[in-house]
Design goal:
The protein has 76 residues and is mainly alpha-helical. It has five helices and no strands. The protein has one domain. The longest helix is centred in the first third of the chain and has 14 residues. The radius of gyration is 13 Å and the shape is globular. The two termini are 20 Å apart.
Amino acid sequence: MMSMNRDDFSALEGRYALGWSVVHFLLTDPRYRGAIPAWLTTLRETGDPGKARDKALENTTFEALERDWKKWVTEE
C-alpha cells in the first residue's frame, strides 16, 4: 500500500480503512511511534514525499513493517 502510486491506491477497495489501520499502528506501536512525526518533518523541510517516507522508515523495511502490521491487525 505504501509503495502504490496515487491512482492504484485510489482504486483499492477499502483504502480508507486500510490506510487508517496503518496510521493507527504507526502511532501506537513503540517500534514505529516516531515514523509519522519524522515523515511530517521531512516532508515539510524537503517537500519530497519519497525522502519523507525513507526518513520515516529508515530503521525498518517495508517487509518488516507489513509483517508487524499484519500481526498487530490479527491479534487486536
